[in-house]
Specification:
Length: about 170
């Protein structure tokens, strides 16, 4: 199972977008307090559109609370990581995989990173940018894990218009 963990997220639009991605990919979301917004805010609803009520998510008081309730392999996304995100093996569909992302302003606590250096990763990029947008980074990680798992249980065809929609499409 793929899990996304947001440590003290600050921007409601990012979290709303991430909630939508989680619904689209059957990914569970874990939110570590304090949150920089209310989960009822219109910004979350706007970016999550009509999907937030379908999002499986949990809220924790702090990191200790989170770690006490979850077991599996934990990966830490940080600009200080030395390994690319694609160098890890996420193929075991039965393993609980947790991608941990830090708050937008300061990231994951440095002590936590230092204690887990073997599972710290960085997305390769130029020296012109310090970090990518949180929501974009979450999308890249979810889809890298799903790619390695052959997109387990996800649809390869658009479900509402039908598999042959474009082949049968005629302009009016």
């Amino acid at each position: 199972m793929i899990n996304v963990v947001l440590f003290e997220p600050e921007i409601p639009g990012n979290t709303g977008n991430i909630m939508r991605k989680c619904v689209a990919t059957n990914t569970t979301l874990h939110l570590i307090k304090p949150l920089g917004f209310s989960l009822d805010e219109k910004y979350i609803k706007r970016s999550g559109v009509n999907y937030i009520d379908k999002c499986k998510y949990f809220v924790y008081e702090n990191m200790d609370d989170f770690f006490s309730k979850n077991k599996g392999t934990f990966y830490y996304l940080t600009r200080y990581g030395h390994k690319p995100h694609s160098s890890f093996n996420y193929t075991n569909k039965d393993e609980n995989i947790y991608f941990i992302f830090g708050k937008e302003s300061t990231g994951i606590p440095k002590k936590l990173l230092k204690d887990n250096l073997d599972h710290c990763m960085r997305m390769p990029m130029t020296d012109n940018v310090r970090a990518l947008n949180l929501s974009n980074t979450v999308a890249i990680m979810i889809y890298e894990a799903l790619r390695q798992q052959n997109y387990r249980d996800l649809l390869f065809n658009e479900p509402h218009k039908g598999e042959n929609f474009l082949e049968e499409y005629e302009e009016n």
